[in-house]
Amino acid sequence: MRLGKYLTLFTCLAISITTIPALATVKLYTIDCGRVYVKDFGDFSNTGFFDGKPVEAAAPCFLIEHPKGRLLWDAGVGKNETIAGLKLVINPVTPELRKIGLTPKDIDFLAFSHLHIDHIGQANIFTDSTWIMNPDEWSNMKDNLGEKSLVSYYPKAQKKLIHRDFDVFDDGSVKILLLPGHTSSHQALMVKLENSGYVLLAGDTYHQRESRTEKLVPRFNVDRADTLASMDRVEGLVKLKKAKLIIQHDIRDFKSLPKFREYMD
Ligand SMILES: [Zn+2]
């Protein structure tokens, strides 16, 4: 009798253990959303480090799949055009998303490192997403390269307004970090992955690996002191969290990431 009771208890325990759902993991996909070819990268350092050097820059989008929703970080290049010494080439995100069975409607949240054309190009197709925006970045957006038309849906979009760092899913796994300097409220994204650890998508804190090693500040950044302070914060986080830093525009960093449809988790 007693043995039977224990057996029943054991069976119940075994069943409850096996029916506990596996811990849902966060996935990070890198999607090719275009290229920016710069004939003379000189303006990307105020020391002259890049003067006369041509650069092929990646313009990726990043998809973060979290048990509570999907976030797209940055929206790549919007069209093929040559403007202000930049040759922009689009790689449309919709067919890429289709490769993993998604449409733009499946993207719950859209957020940008900042509002430059190579980060907002395809934003307007995300009409069902909640746009996470720092109003300071929005009000200081320039329009000399057609930026406003690329985010013309924003006034009608569902919005989540943020003013500082923001924990997207409220569990510390996906955090937007305020890192001003490149623009007035430039941001990066820190993602905590179960197997890969912390990954820091640095936005345009740095444009190339050399920008990091040489601490280079672009000539067109809005604030040099803020830029340097933001770089210090990034390096502090990288050190503390042992984070993998991704320089979004660096084609070497881009190519080092799992090729879509593969992902980091
Ligand atoms: Zn950029």
TrEMBL record:
Keywords: Hydrolase, Metal-binding, Signal, Zinc. It holds the Pfam family Lactamase_B. Residues 58-249 form the Metallo-beta-lactamase domain. SMART domains: Lactamase_B (SM00849). InterPro entries: MBL_superfamily_lactonases (IPR051013), Metallo-B-lactamas (IPR001279), RibonucZ/Hydroxyglut_hydro (IPR036866). PANTHER family: 102 KBASES UNSTABLE REGION: FROM 1 TO 119443, QUORUM-QUENCHING LACTONASE YTNP-RELATED-RELATED. This is N-acyl homoserine lactonase family protein. It comes from Microbulbifer epialgicus. Belongs to the metallo-beta-lactamase superfamily. The lineage of its organism: Bacteria, Pseudomonadati, Pseudomonadota, Gammaproteobacteria, Cellvibrionales. Residues 1-24 form the signal peptide. Transmembrane segments: none annotated. Its cofactor is Zn(2+).
